Amino acid sequence: MKLFNKPGACSLASHIALQEVGATFDLVEVDTDAGKTKSGLDYKKINPNGYVPSLELDSGEILTEGPAILQYIADQHPQSGLAPNVGTLARTRMQEYLNYTGTELHNAFGPFFSSTATEEDKAKAGVNVAAKFDYLNDLLDDGRTYLLGDNFSVADSYLFVVSNWSNFVGIDLKAWPNVAAFVERVASRPAAQAAMKTEGLI
Fold first, then answer.
1. How many CA atoms lie within 13 A of 5 on its CB side?
2. Tens digits of per-residue pLDDT, 56-96?
3. 52 and which of 11, 68, 83, 91 could share a cystine (Cβ 3.0–4.6 Å)?
4. Residues 73 and 93 reside in one and the same domain
């Protein structure tokens, strides 16, 4: 397999999941601004949308969209426990959290990484991100270790990566202690450490 990634981007969640299951894969870095892989390939021929992650399977098929890739990785390695069984309430909850992270929190951070965003845009984004963290802080206030309870899932991988972007845009997670503690827990996992080291983030 090949994981097309950009260091620190949402593709890091898929990288962590691959590390969690002990998969054998190649990491292919992408310059999404230039639209090329590090070796100079036209990335739009791999993923017409131009963003990461993409996962090339051994069959040659390409998967795109982070939440779909995360669930594929988990389902190919059921022994890992990274996703509850299909059809269960727990599986639906995991999908709920994946969708929230992608459509709400991830999108809220968007202006911080946009070259065309104004300072006013970024200020509004900060308010929006804070509201999302308010929700997550309340969600985690019941003492759960991870989103689904005691068991780490691919939803945690994605939420960790996006929440951790706060470090790069000047948002202090101390205002949301439950979120901060969650980020620290996931960051300490060997798979997260391995992925971040490989991507040059730590």
1. 24
2. 999 999 999 999 999 999 999 999 999 999 999 999 999 99
3. 11
4. no
Q: Which two tokens stand for residue 21?
A: 């299951």
**Domain check: are 13 and 54 in the same one?**
yes
Q: Which CATH number fits the domain that encloses residue 165?
A: 1.20.1050.10
pLDDT (tens digit per residue) in 135-169 = 999 999 999 999 999 999 999 999 999 999 999 99
Q: Count other C-beta atoms under 10 Å from residue 191's C-beta.
A: 18
178/95 same-domain check: yes
Residues 74 and 93 in one domain: no
pLDDT value, residue 155: 98
The verdict on 130 and 48 lying in the same domain is no
Tokens of 149: 């309870």
CA-to-CA separations, 23 to 118, 127, 171, in angstroms, rounded: 41, 39, 34
Q: 83 near 154, Cβ under 8 Å?
A: yes
Instruction: Give dist(CA 176, CA 194) in Å, integer.
Output: 26
The count of domains in the chain is 2
The model carries a pTM of: 0.97
Burial class (CB in 10 A: 0-12, 13-18, 19+), 157: buried
